[in-house]
Amino acid sequence: MRKKEEIAIQLKGVKKRYQLGQIGGGTLQGDLQSWWARVRGKEDPNTKIEQRQRLVGKTFMALNGVDLTIDKGEAVGIIGGNGAGKSTMLKLLSRVTAPTEGSIEIYGRIASMLEVGTGFNGEMTGRENVYMNGAILGMTKAEIDAKMDKIIEFSEVGDFIDTPVKRYSSGMYVKLAFSVAAHLDSEIMIMDEVLAVGDMAFQQKCLNKMSDAAKKEGKTVLYVSHNMNTIRQLCKRCIVLDKGKIIFDGDVSRAIEIYMGTLGKVQSHYIYTKKQRIREKSLDKLILQELWMMNGNENRFECGSMIELKLKCRAAECLKNVKFRFEIQFQDGTIAGTMFTSNGVDFNNNDEKEITLEMDTAHLTAGKYNVDIVAFVYDKFGNEGFLDGVYPGFVFEIDEKLNEHNELVWLHQYWGHVHLHNVEIINERMI
Q1: 315 forms bridges with which residues in the sheet?
Q2: For all residues of the chain together, what is the average pLDDT?
Q3: Contact assessment for residue 57 and residue 47, using Cβ atoms and an 8 Å cutoff
Q4: Which long-range contacts (CB under 8 A, 24 or more apart) does 378-381 make?
Q5: Which of 186, 193, 220, 395 gives 109 a disulfide partner, CB atoms 3.0 to 4.6 angstroms apart?
């Protein structure tokens, strides 16, 4: 049983409901029927059969009954797909909005960073915004002055600290906003995935600062990210949200495994739609249509076996030497490696082809992998010309392999996701 003084944040039965579109919009009779059903706590008689559970009449349940307790000094990751409810939860905790039902108890001052520029006035200078944010947290001018030099130094925007922030780049915004949130007197830090705007060196600097805030300063840190490496690096506990509910709360590695499982469903036949084309826009010169995985037991393979694929494509014009790139990611989102087709495929106008491929798994370690597929051609200067891409193209799993002593010896977090060749000792001599 937790003591009250150990708790930083507690949510009980929290729900957040948003109104969709117009209020009403149907017949008067229908609106009255829906209203009367809500008053009595009954199902809306005008809701369509098999409508998603999160849609209740003309409302959307962004969070649907969340119970959560976070202790002081914990660094907790929050992950989930787009629309899972992550940002809504952080807005509730930051008191940007209020819950529709349930209670939220917060013990301590909160410094939050929900999106680029939140809490900043564009007409004010960087220095003035630091004072304003400190005042919101209840700090005196003298207390802010004592921290000002550290804030400016950490933010790396010293030359522009007296410039109106409306002139800042998005990266400068993030650097100053994070520095303010990290250095001002607060017991709880809430960070949405805004660090992606900053450069890699600054991202690492921020992660180190958040880690120190939790471990050395005793602050509570809530961190939302789609980057599983940063979640693993910072957090000891992780929450997985799906459709407005917490589906897992515990070990980070297990949470990542569950999260990736909700994104990449293992199947043996894929029909590609707009949903898979989320990065570069296809020019419709060549379209990746379908893929079949021809072997494997439920898409599970022994290390070293071959994966047989059949890829269906359609070309809208003549294309010579079309090649395919297979970008392989481990279940935590880290890149394991990339494979290319050794030779290309020619297409005439309106050709539709089924291409059979083999993928060697000899160097992949045990685990679940997502594979993105990109079709491209090289121009006469050797530059890659993008044709089409699907993300992910397919999902498969490599079974764990025991050594001669029946031991699982590979640790992904230390050694990576590929088995490289051994380093051979070719000579030794006494000196």
Answers
A1: 286
A2: 83
A3: yes
A4: 378/321, 378/323
A5: 186
More confident call, 426 vs 161: 161
How many other CB atoms sit within 10 Å of the CB of residue 23?
A: 8
Contacts of residue 273, defined as CB under 8 A and 6 or more positions apart, other chains included, come to none
Q: What is the DSSP letter of 167?
A: G
Helical H segments across 162-308, by residue range: 170-183, 200-215, 228-234, 252-263
Neighbours of 124 (CB within 10 A): 15
Q: Per-domain residue ranges for the chain? A: 269-415
Distances (CA, A) of 93 to 6, 96, 99, 184: 18, 8, 9, 18
pLDDT confidence of residue 49: 40
Q: How far apart are the first and last CA of the chain?
A: 64
Contact, 270 vs 288, CB < 8 A?
Answer: no
pLDDT of residue 11: 94
- pLDDT tens digits for 285-333? 999 999 999 987 878 888 888 999 999 999 999 999 999 999 998 877 7
Contacts of 253 (CB under 8 A, 6+ apart): 232
Return the pLDDT at 71: 92
CA dist., res. 99 & res. 14, Å (int): 6
Q: Which amino acid is at 132?
A: M
- Predicted pLDDT at 253: 81
* Tokens 């798994």, located at residue: 361
**What is the DSSP secondary structure assignment for residue 373, as one 8-state letter?**
E
CA distance 224 to 191: 6
* Strand, coil or helix: 294: coil
The answer to whether 76 touches 238, Cβ cutoff 8 Å, is yes
Q: How confident is the model at residue 30 (pLDDT cuts 50, 70, 90)?
A: low
Q: Yes or no: say if 70 and 78 are a contact pair by the CB < 8 Å rule.
A: no
- pTM of this structure: 0.60
Phi-psi region of 264 (alpha: psi -120 to 50; beta: other; left: phi over 0): beta
Residue 226 is predicted with a pLDDT of: 78
User: Tell me, which fold does domain 269-415 have in CATH?
Assistant: Coagulation Factor XIII; Chain A, domain 1 (2.70.50)
- pLDDT greater than 60 at residue 272: yes
Helices and strands, counts by H and E, the chain? 9, 20
